[in-house]
Amino acid sequence: MTAFDLVVRNGRVATAADLFEADIGVKDGVIVALGRGLPKGTRDIDAAGRLVLPGGIDSHCHVEQTSSSGIMTADDFYSATRSAAGGGTTTIIPFAAQHRGMSLRTVVRDYHACATPKAVIDYAFHLIVSDPTETVLGQELPALIADGYTSFKIYTTYDMLKLNDRQVLDVLSIARREGALTMVHAENHDIIAWLSDKLMDAGLTQPKFHAVAHARTAEREATHRVISLAELVDVPVLIVHVSSAEAIEQIRIAQNRGIRVFGETCPQYLYLTEDDLDKPGFEGAKCMCSPPPRDKANQQKVWDALSQGVFQVFSSDHAPYRYDDPEGKMKHGSNPPFKKVANGVPGLEARLPLLFHGISEGRIDLHQFVGLAATNAAKLYGIYPRKGTIAIGSDADLAIWDPEKEVTIRQADLHDAMDYTPYEGLTVKGWPVITISRGEVVAEDGKVTEERGRGQFLRCDRSPLARS
Amino acid sequence: MTAFDLVVRNGRVATAADLFEADIGVKDGVIVALGRGLPKGTRDIDAAGRLVLPGGIDSHCHVEQTSSSGIMTADDFYSATRSAAGGGTTTIIPFAAQHRGMSLRTVVRDYHACATPKAVIDYAFHLIVSDPTETVLGQELPALIADGYTSFKIYTTYDMLKLNDRQVLDVLSIARREGALTMVHAENHDIIAWLSDKLMDAGLTQPKFHAVAHARTAEREATHRVISLAELVDVPVLIVHVSSAEAIEQIRIAQNRGIRVFGETCPQYLYLTEDDLDKPGFEGAKCMCSPPPRDKANQQKVWDALSQGVFQVFSSDHAPYRYDDPEGKMKHGSNPPFKKVANGVPGLEARLPLLFHGISEGRIDLHQFVGLAATNAAKLYGIYPRKGTIAIGSDADLAIWDPEKEVTIRQADLHDAMDYTPYEGLTVKGWPVITISRGEVVAEDGKVTEERGRGQFLRCDRSPLARS
Amino acid sequence: MTAFDLVVRNGRVATAADLFEADIGVKDGVIVALGRGLPKGTRDIDAAGRLVLPGGIDSHCHVEQTSSSGIMTADDFYSATRSAAGGGTTTIIPFAAQHRGMSLRTVVRDYHACATPKAVIDYAFHLIVSDPTETVLGQELPALIADGYTSFKIYTTYDMLKLNDRQVLDVLSIARREGALTMVHAENHDIIAWLSDKLMDAGLTQPKFHAVAHARTAEREATHRVISLAELVDVPVLIVHVSSAEAIEQIRIAQNRGIRVFGETCPQYLYLTEDDLDKPGFEGAKCMCSPPPRDKANQQKVWDALSQGVFQVFSSDHAPYRYDDPEGKMKHGSNPPFKKVANGVPGLEARLPLLFHGISEGRIDLHQFVGLAATNAAKLYGIYPRKGTIAIGSDADLAIWDPEKEVTIRQADLHDAMDYTPYEGLTVKGWPVITISRGEVVAEDGKVTEERGRGQFLRCDRSPLARS
Amino acid sequence: MTAFDLVVRNGRVATAADLFEADIGVKDGVIVALGRGLPKGTRDIDAAGRLVLPGGIDSHCHVEQTSSSGIMTADDFYSATRSAAGGGTTTIIPFAAQHRGMSLRTVVRDYHACATPKAVIDYAFHLIVSDPTETVLGQELPALIADGYTSFKIYTTYDMLKLNDRQVLDVLSIARREGALTMVHAENHDIIAWLSDKLMDAGLTQPKFHAVAHARTAEREATHRVISLAELVDVPVLIVHVSSAEAIEQIRIAQNRGIRVFGETCPQYLYLTEDDLDKPGFEGAKCMCSPPPRDKANQQKVWDALSQGVFQVFSSDHAPYRYDDPEGKMKHGSNPPFKKVANGVPGLEARLPLLFHGISEGRIDLHQFVGLAATNAAKLYGIYPRKGTIAIGSDADLAIWDPEKEVTIRQADLHDAMDYTPYEGLTVKGWPVITISRGEVVAEDGKVTEERGRGQFLRCDRSPLARS
Ligand SMILES: [Zn+2]
Ligand SMILES: [Zn+2]
Ligand SMILES: [Zn+2]
Ligand SMILES: [Zn+2]
Ligand SMILES: [Zn+2]
Ligand SMILES: [Zn+2]
Ligand SMILES: [Zn+2]
Ligand SMILES: [Zn+2]
Question: Considering the domain boundaries, does residue B441 fall inside one?
Answer without folding.
Answer: no
